[in-house]
Description:
This protein is an alpha/beta fold. It contains six helices and five strands. It has helices at 14-27, 44-56, 71-77, 91-99, 115-127, 134-140; strands spanning 5-9, 31-33, 62-67, 85-87, 105-109. The protein has a five-stranded parallel beta sheet with strand order 2-1-3-5-4, with helices on both faces. Helix 1 links the parallel strand 1 (5-9) and strand 2 (31-33). The longest helix is centred in the first third of the chain and has 14 residues, at 14-27. 39% of the residues are buried. The model has no long low-confidence stretch (mean pLDDT 97).
Amino acid sequence: MPDPVILGSDHAGFALKERLKAALDRLGVPWDDVGTTSEDSVDYPDFGHQVAEAVATGRFSRGILVCGTGIGVSITANRHPGVRAALVCDEEAARQSREHNDANVLALGGRTTDPARADRILEIWLNTPFAGGRHGRRVAKIETR
């Protein structure tokens, strides 16, 4: 069974997050959702920090975050040591974020990402292994603390 993933979103990412949960179910990937639970206005950092903290501490190996554009949650998540959140807009970026950058948090825009494309991005991101080698050397240089 695949490792579970942790998800979070703000109100603008709520609908896409719900769709991604259904896609995870179809793929047989267990998940935990830290919220939000509706389209009522909330602050994206609250959910970005929860997901990033769960990945940074090792409770989950990967996380998924969604806000309006994905920018806010990716900035928030990347404030946590050991988190490599990638804002992904297409399938090639999904593949490279895993293969080259060992991204452990996927950030998507609920208002900017076509839902069918988000499903494809998710599947590619989940199934692409980290290449290691020269990419491992580069990823090791990311941490500053």
